[in-house]
Amino acid sequence: MQNIVESIRRYYPVSDQSIEELAACFVKKTSPAKELIIEGGKMNNYVYFIESGLCRSYCIVDDEEVTSWFSSEGDITFALLALYRGEPGFEYVETLEPTTFYCIKIDDLNKLYKTNIEIANWSRVVHQECLLSVQTRRIERLQMAAKERYEILLKEQPALFARVKLSYLASFLGMTPQHLSKMRAEHSNKDIHPIF
After folding, report:
1. For 2-138, which CATH superfamily applies?
2. What is the pLDDT of residues 39-77, one digit of tens each?
3. CB–CB of 159/195 below 8 Å?
4. Which residues of the chain have pLDDT under 50?
5. For residue 1, which of 24, 31, 33, 34 has the smallest C-alpha distance?
6. Displacement of CA 93 from its chain's centroid (Å)
7. What is the pTM of this model?
8. CA 39 → CA 45, 82, 87, 109, 180, distances in Å?
């Protein structure tokens, strides 16, 4: 659980005792690549802490998969409406690589929020950071050219370009795969080779 613990403490100084309380609720799960762990329209009662591997969150828009998020080592992933309102979510989450999770029931996590101020504060900070990231990305899509969005993602998350299919990256950036491929060809960094 090293990646998970390091990630938790990167956001908030959670004590060993609180980590142990959280870990006592975990169930370890390993999934192969291309497994759907959350399905839109179906209730999913878990939050997934990723120890190793990579996941993609997406929605279906006009029969097309639109990538909204990538989660990797140390990240968490879940169905938003399930966590916040106890309702089936709208997003899908699939593994892009063999992935090891530590799963916790939403009910158990909510109990910890009520009894453990460190876990509650960690969660608050994580959700604030995610909200800020989503809002920043939304504004970038409204104000920035596709090339600028590409360069920001390349700078902030370069590993994605070696681990994620070009079509998923293009969807995430709000452009066609052809447009992204052309930008890649024009870009001076020849060391990054996305999966096709």
Report:
1. Jelly Rolls (2.60.120.10)
2. 999 999 999 999 999 999 999 999 999 999 999 999 999
3. no
4. 196
5. 24
6. 9
7. 0.88
8. 12, 11, 12, 21, 28
